[in-house]
Amino acid sequence: xxxxxxxxxxxxxxxxxxxxxxxxxxxxxxxxxxxxxxxxxxxxxxxxxxxxxxxxxxxxxxxxxxxxxxxxxxxxxxxxxxxxxxxxxxxxxxxxxxxxxxxxxxxxxxxxxxxxxxxxxxxxxxxxxxxxxxxxxxxxxxxxxxxxxxxxxxxxxxxxxxxxxxxxxxxxxxxxxxxxxxxxxxxxxxxxxxxxxxxxxxxxxxxxxxxxxxxxxxx
Length: 219
Prior knowledge:
Elements (H helix, E strand, L loop, with lengths): L3 E6 L3 E5 L4 E4 L7 H7 E3 L12 E3 L4 E5 L2 E8 L6 E3 L2 E3 L3 E3 L2 E3 L3 E2 L5 E10 L8 E6 L6 E7 L4 E7 L5 E7 L7 E9 L5 E7 L2 E8 L6 E3 L1
Parallel strand pairs: 5-10
Antiparallel strand pairs: 1-7, 1-13, 2-3, 2-13, 4-11, 6-7, 7-10, 8-9, 12-21, 13-18, 14-15, 14-21, 15-16, 16-17, 18-19, 19-20
GO biological process, one term: carbohydrate metabolic process
GO molecular function, one term: hydrolase activity, hydrolyzing O-glycosyl compounds
Protein name: Family 16 glycoside hydrolase
């Protein structure tokens, strides 16, 4: 029984800015399994199959359903060993899937990055789809370019510390439809990075990531 799905079609892309924009992950990345595996790894990009939620990642829950669309599903399970995060055990109630980019992404001084994709994401209670960037070395930085936490809303978050963050929650209408997400990261002073969030072409929030410039991210 499949309880939830996250669909990502071929609009997913990452491009660097300025001077001449370079596409880092092309729109063809989801055209085939071979293309997917050229740019992404299964499960979390830092290694491992669990994080801070009640799901264990599993390759079989990541599929190219049709050329151009990546489907990630979640399935209720019983009897899984618990995950451990921050010294605490977390019960595993789902098998699900994740992919992480093979490369790291860094906002250079005077430059920037744009991440974009089109998503059909569930808002079912108990699910937690996310499109996010997190620090390769330590934590933060973290940018949740789109996060759905089973509340009927979509969240846009930027963490400067675990207690100092900027966020905006927006009602996520028509979750059965695809919605376009874009996140623009631009260096502002050689240290800090401006983060702009968009949904369906409309600006949603503007944050500043303190000391984000020059620090590598996982996607």
